[in-house]
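Check this.
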Amino acid sequence: MPKETFHNLSANKKQKIFDAAVQEFSTQRFSEASINQIVKTAEIPRGSFYQYFHDKEDLFQYMFDQILKEKREIISQIKTLNPDTDVFEVCIQTVKATFAWSKLKPKYSQISLLMEIDQSEFITKIRKASAQSLKELVERDKKRGIIRPEIDADLLVEMIYALILKEYFWSGLDEDRFLTKLNDMVAILKRGSAIES
C-alpha cells in the first residue's frame, strides 16, 4: 500500500499518479511495465516514486484496489440482484454491469485482460484472490442444494472465468452477441452442476 507521504499529496497529484499507472498497466503486462514510464507520465522524479510506494507491486495494488472500489460501487447499484440469487445469476448480472462500465473505462478492461496473460507470481496471487468471492458463492450454493456437492468449486470458477474471457475476446464490443453467448454458456454450466430432482 502507499506510504504516508503519498496520502499527504494533493488529490490532483494522486490522480496524476493513478492515471499514469492506469496508462502503463493498460498497455503493458505488470511484469513488463516500466516505473520509468510511469514517473515520466506522472511528471514526478523517480526518487519521489519511492517516497510514495515501496515498488511496482505496491503501486499496482493501490491502482487495482481503487479500480475494484469503483467496480464494487457500480455492481452494488444492480437493483435486480437478490441476495439469495445463485452464483450463476450473480455472474451474469455482474458481467453485464462490468461490460457497461468497461465501455466507459476501456483502459480498466485492458488491465484485466493483460492480467490474464501475465504469469508473474504477484499477478497470479491477485487473480486467485479475485476468484475467492465467486468460489465462496459456489460453496454456499452447494450447501443450499443448488450445486452438486462433489463439484470442484475451484474448477467451476475457472471454467466460468475462462468462458467469459474467451467470449469477451471473440465478441469485442458486440454487447448483444456477448450477453447472448454468456447466458447460453452459464445455462450449460448451471445444468451440468445442478442437483437432479
About this structure: The chain has ten helices and no strands. Residues 121-143 form the longest helix (23 residues).
